[in-house]
Amino acid sequence: MDVALVLAVDASGSIDDTEYAFQREAIASAFRDEHVVAAIKSVGVMAAGVMFWGDGEFPAQRIDWTIIEGSDDAEGFAQKVESNKRTVFGNTDIGSGIWAALDMLTDPRLCASRLIVNVSGDGKETIAPKRRHVATLDMARRRAEEMDVTVNALVLADEERDLASYYKQKVIVGNNAFVMSIDTYSDYASAIRKKLIREIPSQSLAQADTPEW
Fold first, then answer.
1. pLDDT digits (tens, 9 = 90+) for 177-187
2. Where would I find the H helices in the chain?
3. How many domains are contained in the chain?
């Protein structure tokens, strides 16, 4: 297997049900896009999963692995995402979300040469008194580094104008990690598609074919 990718999607309390559904539909649409499927084919075989995260005191919501080699597999994954029902709310615990995504990447069935977490969010890490079951953002980033996982980010900066800078400094991990920023949910579908096209291929191909964001 060439790539294992987890989409770690913000489902915290700042995301209303309409926005949650919009994210879900945008991800499904992206995996039906011919250019995304072509990016997957360019690397051979990819395992894709989703982790909807929110308050770290409660379990993240997981869509398990789908092995994708072409459009039929991608369609099956898109249907899984579309049929998902929301169970996650609460604080913006980015660290716990990344930690849960990293847990997925420890699956012994995976033997991928590249491991990627694609995290999206509309806010900064919730600062709260220490809670027993919550992994901090620093903890999650250290673990990602130890596991040689690349963490890229897509941020919705409609309310916090410095959010892209925050994610660049505090969230992403890896030599070629990057942040993409959008201002409205109307841009989300296009952005997640472009982000997948950029991060799925090998780093050399992505850097040659994709403009900076």
1. 999 999 988 89
2. 17-31, 34-43, 71-82, 94-105, 137-146, 163-170, 188-199, 203-209
3. 1
